[in-house]
Specification:
By secondary structure, the chain is of the alpha+beta class. Helices cover 18% and strands 36% of the residues. Strands 1-2-5-4-3-6 form a six-stranded antiparallel β-sheet. Strands 7-8-9-10-11 form a five-stranded antiparallel β-sheet. A hairpin with a 7-residue loop joins β1 (25-30) and β2 (38-43).
Length: 194
């Protein structure tokens, strides 16, 4: 079904069609841990590595409507894309549906970006050019040595880039623990690296 839905979407989603054609999905499992009725995809790792880019914005495609052959009922279908890769889907309603693949309605589809509100606490601390370099899903609050910092980007060997509530940037060393103040220009270089 996901293949039929993606075929109907506009041309900017052709990269999702390519993933399916290259057989990125090797299976799926129900995973309602965070989202009710969520089904998560399992991957062929070699194809997954080709498409995965954690610097891309995570989003879901909503507003897709599908029809059940048996009851004629219409259900909402959403597709999740994480790091540029098909991640899974939700299909509301009961499990035992027989979807009519020829009656997929995408007229009201829309993109909802995920984790965007993670940026809210740091919007006052950095300018727009820096904000555009930050992946929202990587931002979260941490407390170290009784000070609040925001994690911005994982670096190498467990180290990470962060910012305090005054807009100062730091590299946090994992082993041994170290919190090193850095210049804004160095932080921009670290954020610019893929």
């Amino acid at each position: 079904m996901i293949e039929k839905v993606i075929e109907k979407l506009p041309v900017e989603f052709v990269y999702l069609q390519k993933q399916i054609k290259e057989r990125i999905i090797r299976g799926s499992i129900p995973d309602p841990t965070f989202i009710p009725q969520f089904v998560r995809f399992l991957y062929h790792h070699d194809v997954f590595k080709k498409y995965n880019d954690e610097n891309l914005r995570h989003y879901k495609i909503t507003g897709i409507k599908v029809s059940d052959l048996i009851t004629g009922s219409i259900f909402c279908y959403s597709i999740y894309v994480i790091g540029g890769v098909l991640n899974g889907y939700t299909l509301e309603g009961t499990k035992n549906k027989k979807i009519i693949l020829g009656e997929i309605d995408i007229l009201q589809f829309k993109i909802d970006y995920l984790y965007e509100d993670n940026l809210d606490p740091i919007k006052e601390l950095v300018d727009e050019s820096i904000l555009n370099l930050i992946t929202p899903s990587e931002v979260y609050l941490i407390e170290l040595e009784c000070v609040n910092y925001f994690h911005l980007r994982d670096l190498e060997d467990g180290d990470f880039l962060g910012i305090d509530d005054k807009g100062n940037f730091y590299v946090f060393k994992h082993d041994p623990l170290g919190i090193n103040l850095i210049e804004k220009e160095i932080a921009i270089k670290l954020l610019s690296k893929k």
